[in-house]
Write a structure and sequence with these properties.
Blueprint (H helix, E strand, L loop, with lengths): L1 H18 L6 H19 L20 H30 L3 H25 L9 H26 L2
């Protein structure tokens, strides 16, 4: 349910960015919308247990169809929001907003690094496996914080 609520709010955000005047980055708005669509799939299809989570789950399990659909929905969303961060970094730079451009660029770098570390951990990389959930949450928090910042900027500067 939480994924579906987050998806609806994210898609609403993307629509708002698309409709803002003067327009925010159209490509960036679409990419944020793709993140929202990915959240729908992640919410509808349950992920597989992995790395002993939830408690009592074996360290490795076989992938199920729903787990693959969950990942297949999530991965394009993660890629879209990372590319959106870069698109907005350029958009902010062109508008002489170096702080927002830098924040967007740094968010993209941290987001991609955290999600990649999470993926390696979930793939049972021995050194990282215990930290997969932490890395994933760091990436997701960076993503949501960035979307909140872009939304706030649009709300206060693009009416």
């Amino acid at each position: 349910m939480n994924f579906l609520v987050a998806a609806a709010l994210t898609i609403a955000c993307a629509i708002g960015l698309w409709r803002s005047k003067p327009q925010a980055s159209r490509a960036g708005a679409v990419l944020i919308g793709v993140w929202g669509i990915g959240l729908i799939g992640a919410g509808v299809f349950r992920t597989d247990p992995v790395s002993g989570y939830p408690a009592g789950t074996p360290g490795t399990v076989e992938y199920t169809t729903t787990g693959m659909l969950h990942d297949g929905s999530s991965i394009p969303g993660f890629l879209a929001v990372a590319i959106g961060m870069l698109v907005y970094a350029v958009w902010f730079a062109k508008r002489r907003s170096p702080a927002l451009a830098t924040y967007s660029l740094m968010s993209a770098l941290v987001f991609v690094a955290a999600i990649e570390l999470a993926n390696l951990a979930f793939a049972q990389s021995a050194e990282l496996v215990a930290f997969g959930g932490l890395f994933q949450r760091i990436g997701v928090i960076v993503g949501w914080a960035w979307i909140a910042l872009v939304s706030r900027h649009a709300l206060t500067h693009l009416r």
